[in-house]
Known about the structure:
The chain is mainly alpha-helical. It has a domain at about 5-85. Helices cover about 60% and strands about 5% of the residues. The protein contains four helices and two strands; from the N terminus they run H-H-H-E-E-H. Strands 1-2 form a two-stranded antiparallel sheet. Strand 1 (about 95) and strand 2 (about 100) form a beta hairpin. Helix 1 packs across helix 3 and helix 2 packs antiparallel against helix 3 (about 60-85). About 15% of the residues are buried.
Amino acid sequence: MQGEVCAAVYKIFVQDVFHEVEFAVGKFPPFNSAHEGYAILKEEVDELWDAVKGNKADGSLEAQRKEAIQVAAMAIRFVLDISDKGKHRNERFFCDECKSELFAEVDNHLTTCSRSGEYR
């Protein structure tokens, strides 16, 4: 069907976003407030907009992708740190289908789960 994206493409994107979240959580402390989380998320969106405005054939598509991944990662971080009040920050998650641990070994899980990386 036209417009559909292969599941493998989603897997790559999810992996890239996960790695960005993992990097940010390891490098920076949790957001102190919703205001701080919003400011950081807005900064990432502004950087994406700068990359979009500079749309040229000189690699800016890669810059747009990088910034979009950072926006997605900071949105997830906002949920982890603010919306869920940090309660999931150190929690372990498991796939309902194959029971393997998610996030700790996301690379392996995304390639071996029979559900092809479907998450809820």
